[in-house]
Write a structure and sequence with these properties.
By secondary structure, the protein is α/β, with parallel strands linked by helices. Helix content is 49%, strand content 8%. Among the domains are: 24-35 and 359-530, 3-Layer(aba) Sandwich (Rossmann fold); 272-355. It is built from 24 helices and 11 strands.
Length: 531
C-alpha cells in the first residue's frame, strides 16, 4: 500500500468530509456537501415549493423541513423574512404564489409583534387577488390562528381597493378553497370606505335578486350588473355585447357559452396574459386560433411584448409548461384536443426567454453542466408537470440563446455531450434531455473533464439537485485542481433545482455562488457575478 494513494492532498471521496471542513453535512444521498443558511433555503422554498417529492425525500418531509426553516427565519429576523416573502411574491419571481402565502401565514401565526405588524402590512402585496386571500385564511385556519384586529384590518385593506378593480375581482374570483366573499366580508367586519364599495359589498353579501335591463348607475357596479345579465342571457350575441361593452372575464360566463368561437373572439382582446396562455388549447379547439387567422396575430402580439409579460407577472415556467402542452395537442386533464398552430408554438418559445427580462451576455467561455442523474428525473418543479432535469435544460437554453461562447454537457457518473443550438425549440430540447437517465451523481465531473480536455472554461454553471455522492473528489476540490492546472480563475454557479438545504457551493469562497433555479432574478444575479 502507498500511503499517499490513501491520503492525497486535495482529493477526498464525496462520501467523506473534506479534512478540516466540519461545516460539511451529509445530504440525502449520503454524500457530504455544504448546508445553505435558513434565508437561502427560504428563497428556494418560495420559488420552488415542496409539492413534489425528490428522489430521496417525500413531499411531506420536504414541506415539514421547509416549514421549520421558515420558523427559524422568523426567529432570527422576522421582518427580514417578511421582506423576502414580499420580494419574491410581489416581483413575480416564483411560478406559484402558494409558498409565499403559506410563509406569510406562518409569520402571522408565529412571529413576534414587529413581525406580525410587517406581515399584516404585507398582506395586500402578497395577496393581490381574492384567491390569494382565501388561501391565506385557509392556511391560517390550519395553523390554528383565529381572527385578530390586525388580520381584520389587513383584509379590509385588500377589499377597500380601487372600486373598478374590486368589481372585477368579485366577479372573476367568486369562491375558492371553500371560501366566498360573503364569508370573508362578514368575518373580517370590513367597513366600506365609499358608497361605491358599499354597493359592491352589498352584492357580494346579499346578491341582487332584481336586475333591470339598464346598466347600474354607479360605474364601478356595472361589471357586476353585466355579470348578472350574462347569467340570464339567452343568445350568443347578447353575451358578446356584454363582453365587449363591460370587459367581462371568461370566468364570469356559463360553460355553454365557452364553446362558441364568437365568445372567445370577444374575450381575446381584453383577456389577461395568464388567462390567454392557459386557454390557447381551448381557443384552438374551438376554431378561433387557426393558420392565418386574425386571432393568431393578436396572440403573437401579446406574447411578443416582453414588458407586458413581466408587468403581468407571467412566470417563465408558466410559459414553458404552456408551450409544452400546447405543442403536444392535448391537455393534462380531460379529453380536449387540438391541432397546434406552429406560429403560436414559436411565439410561446420566444415568450419564455422574454419573460426573464433583458440579460446582458458576459462574453465568458461558459460550460453549462446539466445533472441528468436518476434523481433529477424525479419530482416536479413547484408542483408543475416538469422534472428538475427538464427544467434545467430549459434554463440552460436561456444561456445558450444569450451567451455567444457556450458548451453544454450532461453528467451523472459519466459525461455526455448535449449539442444544444440557439435555434432549437424548447419542447425539442426538453424532450431530448428527458430521455437521458443515468445513475449516480458526481458534480465534480464538469471541472475534471474540462481539465482533462484542457478546455479553457471561465464560467462553470451547474444545474443540479445537489445530491452528489459518487465521485472520489469533491466539486470544490475539482475546481481547485482546474484553476491550478489551467491557470484560469474560473468561477462556479450552482443552480439548485430542488428545495433542499444542500449545495455543492462552498459558502466561504468568493468564486462559488448558489442560486435558485427558475427564480426570474437568477439570470441577472448570475450574470453580474460572472462578469
Amino acid at each position: 500500500m502507498r500511503y499517499r494513494d490513501v491520503y492525497e492532498q486535495g482529493k477526498t471521496s464525496q462520501r467523506q468530509q473534506i479534512p478540516g471542513r466540519e461545516d460539511q453535512v451529509k445530504n440525502s444521498a449520503g454524500g457530504f456537501v455544504f448546508e445553505i443558511g435558513p434565508f437561502e433555503r427560504l428563497g428556494r422554498f418560495l420559488v420552488l415549493g415542496s409539492e413534489g417529492p425528490t428522489f430521496y425525500a417525500s413531499a411531506r418531509k420536504l414541506t415539514l423541513q421547509n416549514a421549520s426553516c421558515v420558523r427559524e427565519c422568523l426567529r432570527q429576523d422576522g421582518p427580514r423574512a417578511v421582506e423576502t416573502i414580499v420580494d419574491v411574491s410581489h416581483n413575480g419571481r416564483a411560478p406559484k404564489n402558494d409558498p409565499a402565502i403559506f410563509a406569510l401565514a406562518m409569520a402571522i401565526r408565529y412571529g413576534d409583534d414587529a413581525t406580525r405588524a410587517a406581515a399584516y402590512r404585507a398582506v395586500p402585496l402578497v395577496c393581490r387577488i381574492p384567491t390569494h386571500v382565501f388561501n391565506l385564511l385557509e392556511d391560517l385556519k390550519a395553523l390554528g390562528k383565529g381572527w385578530s384586529r390586525g388580520l381584520r384590518n389587513a383584509i379590509s385593506n385588500v377589499y377597500n381597493k380601487d372600486p373598478d378593480t374590486l368589481a372585477y375581482h368579485l366577479v372573476k374570483y367568486r369562491q375558492r378553497a371553500g371560501w366566498t366573499h360573503r364569508d370573508v366580508l362578514r368575518m373580517a367586519h370590513v367597513k366600506p370606505e365609499s358608497e361605491a364599495h358599499n354597493i359592491l359589498f352589498d352584492w357580494a353579501v346579499n346578491g341582487w335578486p332584481d336586475i333591470g335591463p339598464e346598466p347600474h348607475p354607479a360605474k364601478s357596479a356595472q361589471m357586476v350588473w353585466a355579470y348578472e345579465r350574462a347569467r340570464r342571457a339567452e343568445g350568443v350575441s347578447e353575451i358578446v355585447k356584454l363582453i365587449t361593452d363591460y370587459k367581462l372575464p371568461w370566468e364570469a360566463l356559463d360553460s355553454k357559452w365557452l364553446r362558441e368561437p364568437d365568445v372567445w373572439a370577444a374575450l381575446l382582446p381584453g383577456m389577461p396574459l395568464t388567462a390567454m396562455i392557459r386557454n390557447l388549447g381551448r381557443m384552438t379547439h374551438n376554431g378561433l386560433l387557426a393558420p392565418f387567422s386574425d386571432a393568431v396575430d393578436v396572440v403573437i402580439t401579446k406574447l411578443s411584448n416582453g414588458e407586458h409579460l413581466r408587468r403581468s407577472r407571467v412566470h417563465p415556467l408558466t410559459v414553458l409548461i404552456a408551450q409544452r402542452i400546447y405543442a403536444q395537442g392535448y391537455g393534462m386533464r380531460g379529453s380536449l384536443t387540438w391541432s397546434p398552430v406552429p406560429r403560436v408554438i414559436n411565439a410561446l418559445d420566444d415568450a419564455f426567454y422574454l419573460s426573464f427580462g433583458n440579460v446582458t451576455p458576459t462574453g465568458k467561455n461558459t460550460l453549462l453542466a446539466l445533472d441528468v442523474s436518476g434523481s433529477m428525473g424525479f419530482g416536479k418543479i413547484s408542483g408543475m408537470p416538469i422534472t428538475p432535469r427538464e427544467a434545467s435544460a430549459a434554463m440552460a437554453m436561456l444561456a445558450v440563446r444569450t451567451e455567444p461562447k457556450t458548451l453544454v454537457l450532461g453528467f451523472s457518473h459519466e459525461l455526455v455531450e448535449i449539442p444544444l443550438s440557439r435555434h432549437q425549440r424548447l419542447d425539442d430540447v426538453v424532450s431530448r434531455v428527458s430521455r437521458m437517465n443515468f445513475g449516480a451523481t458526481d458534480c465534480a465531473l464538469p471541472m475534471l473533464a474540462a481539465m482533462d480536455r484542457k478546455t479553457p472554461v471561465e464560467s462553470f454553471v451547474i444545474y443540479t439537485d445537489n445530491e452528489t455522492w459518487f465521485g472520489d473528489m469533491h466539486p470544490v476540490q475539482a475546481l481547485d485542481r482546474y484553476q491550478k492546472a489551467m491557470n484560469i480563475p474560473a468561477k462556479v454557479v450552482v443552480v439548485g433545482m430542488t428545495a433542499t438545504e444542500f449545495s455543492i457551493a462552498d459558502p466561504t469562497r468568493g468564486d462559488m455562488l448558489d442560486v435558485v433555479g427558475f427564480d426570474t432574478a437568477a439570470p441577472m444575479v448570475m450574470n453580474n457575478f460572472l462578469r
